Amino acid sequence: MSSQTGAPPESLARGIEIGASPNVPSATLAVQQAARDQNPTSSTRISYPRQSFRVTLPTFFVTIFSHSVRVELKRRVSRSLVPKHHSAQSISFNMPMAVGPVSAPAELEVPVPKGADADLSLAGLPGSLPTTLDTEALNTASKILHVIDRYRLRKTPGAPVRADEGALKFLAVIYSHVRAGEAVPMCLPAFPFKSPNSSTKVLGKLPDRAEELALAHLNGLCLAIGDIYPPGAKLTIISDGLVYNDLLGVPDKDVWAYGEALRTLALQKGFTNIQFCRLRDLVSIPLPEQLDEMTYVANASNFRRALLNTFSRPDWEWKVVSQSEDVCLTYRGYIKFLETDLQDVYPLRDDRTKSKYKRGIEYIAKEMMARGDAFASAVRQKYRDHVRLSIHPSTGAAKLSISLLPTTTMFTTPWHCTVAVKIDGSIVSGMRSEFANDENMELVHENGRPSYFREKSELFKWGEAKGGITCEPIYPSGWLIRPANGSGTMKIGDVDAGKVRALSEINSPVIMRGFFEKPNEDVFIEKSREFGEPLPWKFGLLLKVKDHGADTRGLNNVLSAEWMPFHYDGLFKTTKKINEKGEESLVSVPPHFQFFAGATASPRTTGFTLFSSSTQIFKHLPAGYTVEGLTGKTWSVSTSSFDQTVLKGIPLIESHPTTGKPCLRYHEPWPQSKTKFDATNVRIEGCDESESAAICEAIDSALHDRRVAYYHIWEKGDLVVSDNVLMMHTRSDFNAGSDRELWRIHFD
């Protein structure tokens, strides 16, 4: 850029980093502003280089102080882009996948306000922005960032948002790994120790059901990324326990025990996408080769000292750093939780009034902020090529704030709360005292310790004569029932069919494990009659679901090893009826329930049966779609299979016959490109093709969402009852010719 004046510019640059990996070319988009002309009415001729370039970033945000350049940039770029926002100081655009050549004029004459001119430039760090990017890798990176966004923490009302800046930064980080074909690394400072307030807040010092849910939720995030990008993602949880525990009166050995129990829990539950690190991994001090409880506790003070000596900023002052909105959001979060965390540690008394307690909390919170700054610096240095996640509310510019618990309450971190599980599977997080005082809740012990609260119900109580049962909530949907005295101590004949069926209508699937160790067809068929009226179809009463290769037996890809679309059973089980107009029409008569048995175990990593509940589906529909908006819509379906069935006017949403709750009735579109068998065509009625496709895409997204879909790994002898109205289900692919075999009976 050139100017008619020769005054030296004063640099007031502000930029956005769009390449964070040290081995990948990166660039900084900088807006430089300089004082040049003292004449407020003069015109300055600004020369723009005549060049074409391709931009493939999904979101672009930049702050520009010069009004003239802001207007010109908006005019130039909007030839290919639609401005998202144009305020007094900034412009942001939603960028499409690939913006074609954008040419700038050689010169432009614009008025320049007094004392201000601007220079818009691209500066490479260490290289320069490539003229073309790997559009496929960038598109994948954008999808991955969208997946992470599903897990974002709800924004604090009134908090400024700079998510565009963060999106650009993290998109570049993800892009670099996708382009290299690597797993996307994420890091999360979290899981320090349980709150010291075990009287009214948490259930104890060790991880419980709250931590298990959080780890399942986070592992699901990694798996969701793997669903769209096979290398997947890995999450490193960096425990910040030793950074703060002494400030809260928590012993070092409690921090060690909590961390060890977390690692054991993740291993037992198969959360293979999560790994852990401690403060010892961020600092360099002499240590024994093997770190155990005693050597860890002995070095705890050394870890803290090394952290502060190495990473503390000597110029850190609260008055200065508190000007940052991210700092203020974190500080307010500390204050909120410390008020209850420290009630047992520093109880009120004659010489400690409420006001003095409040001042003490504020002091501790500021000390935590100072240490947290050093800790954050250490994390940035150690994990510079990772996507930085955070549990704290933020503007979104430097870190992505996520919720660790699938809950709608303010308690989103498991070490600060207790969880309660409702019969329908809904998770509620809150204070221990809140649930203890709720007459509808009961405390459940696991591994000899209090673990979570559960909504009271007689449906969880049967088989007392043989020791009773345990009922464990499944994330994200369903219940797992086992004999309390161990596998094999109760048989399939001991299962209370009425209570299991009733429970499945509220929350499915209901999995019974340890009751049917030696599967027998006759015994299975006989038991089905206790659940309801068995319903035969063209294949008879019992269908053996296994890979039959090309022999479809008229059931399309049901008896194959390939992926199936989400569906409900019996859609194509039809009968002819006379409608209100007196015309004969073909209608679907699906069964109410499914009863499965695992005749064999399935592979641990393939051949899953996926169950998605309407309860969860409607919570996680994409923005712009609601159950109310979908109610009243109908759809049609056609396929060459199932006697070339064509069905029309099927309600998309129906009320459950028992609970009255809205339930999704749908079949995922399955074009020929997805199957070597017969395609299944689905169309939402009463709208054009593009709107129909958009609605189907929104529903499909929710069905496959890892916060919705439960992936069941079959063990031999598993018994499963699922409500065919409440639930949608499908099967993942598996190795052709595998001995994976399920038995299925429909009943009403």
TrEMBL record:
Residues 498-745 form the TauD/TfdA-like domain. The keyword Protease does not apply. It comes from Purpureocillium lilacinum. This is TauD/TfdA-like domain-containing protein. Pfam families: DIT1_PvcA (PF05141), TauD (PF02668). GO terms for molecular function: oxidoreductase activity. It comes from the Eukaryota. Keywords: Oxidoreductase. Residues 1-20 are annotated as: Disordered.
